[in-house]
Specification:
Elements lengths: L14 H13 L12 H46 L7 H10 L1 H47 L3
Amino acid sequence: MSFLLTLSEDKLEQIIPLLSKYEEKIKAAEPIFKLENRRLEEIMRTLPYYQSAYDQAHQDMKALEDWVTNIKDKRVGKLWKKYTEGYARQLTSRDIQAYIGADQEIVELNQILIEVVVLKNHLNSIVEAIRQLAWMCSNMTKLRISEMQDAML
């Protein structure tokens, strides 16, 4: 079950603790890349777990970004309707966009969306770094195998 089903559009403050959880997960990734005094077998054994976990977190952030964008679009639509139908004089689309952009709810949604995108990009960087680490470990293993094949008994 997706965590998005537990969120309510009316209570955006539910997102903040969720973002904190992902920030902690990002900070916890640093020891993965410390390779000194670790065996190659141990590193290669744990990489799939980390890649899966951080890729899932990245996918969660993508979904959260889409969810926040949908809420923002709904609110923009309601405000657009309010400004086009509720005024005695016709406002230009630029005026309406300015009013909507200054609306407190839209500003808060934009701030949340920016935070979500930043976290998503950090998670994507971690996933890419894990892929590079796996590639490097694979090459190191191939080099070790070729050294063994060249050895004479």
